[in-house]
Automatic annotation (TrEMBL):
<dbReference type="Pfam" id="PF01814">
    <property type="entry name" value="Hemerythrin"/>
</dbReference>
<protein>
    <submittedName>
        <fullName>Hemerythrin domain-containing protein</fullName>
    </submittedName>
</protein>
<feature type="domain" description="Hemerythrin-like">
    <location>
        <begin position="5"/>
        <end position="125"/>
    </location>
</feature>
<dbReference type="InterPro" id="IPR012312">
    <property type="entry name" value="Hemerythrin-like"/>
</dbReference>
<dbReference type="GO" id="GO:0005886">
    <property type="term" value="C:plasma membrane"/>
</dbReference>
Length: 147
């Protein structure tokens, strides 16, 4: 079984690939990019919820830190959700310029966000939650996204 850090870092890479596929789809034909967008948006939301509903809560319960790194990551998730939503609206309106303006901002934010999580938060979580690591990964894998 993978550690919390390994599991969530691998999921970052998977979401990054879906992001690249979505950008390629829009570049080729914004009219037919909706499916690639919905896959990226859905899987990214699933990743956010795995963190927010499982890992962040377990970390906060164990450490008592509720206004630390998890609060910052939640705030960044909200920023990314807004950009993803705006990208979906740009696809609906067939506005490539608006889509790529938002996707460029999102890419920069995601890179910085993922680096903070992978280098700091996931390492801290693994240190504090190592005994519960397998069950936490199991909970994240079996999670159903809440709308």
């Amino acid at each position: 079984m993978s550690t919390i850090k390994e599991y969530l870092s691998a999921d970052h890479k998977r979401c990054d690939e879906l992001f690249a596929n979505m950008e390629d789809a829009v570049a080729n034909s914004i009219e037919s990019a909706k499916e690639a967008y919905e896959l990226f948006a859905g899987e990214t939301e699933r990743h956010f919820q795995m963190e927010e509903r499982v890992m962040f809560l377990e970390f906060e319960t164990k450490t008592g830190m509720t206004q630390g790194p998890t609060a910052m990551m939640r705030m960044e998730h909200t920023q990314m959700r807004n950009l993803i939503n705006d990208m979906g609206l740009a696809i609906e309106n067939k506005n490539k310029d608006k889509f790529f303006s938002n996707s460029e901002t999102l890419m920069i934010l995601m890179q910085q966000h993922n680096m903070k999580e992978e280098q700091m938060l996931y390492t801290m979580a693994q240190q504090h939650l190592s005994a519960e690591s397998d069950s936490i990964v199991d909970m994240m894998q079996s999670m159903v996204v809440e709308k």
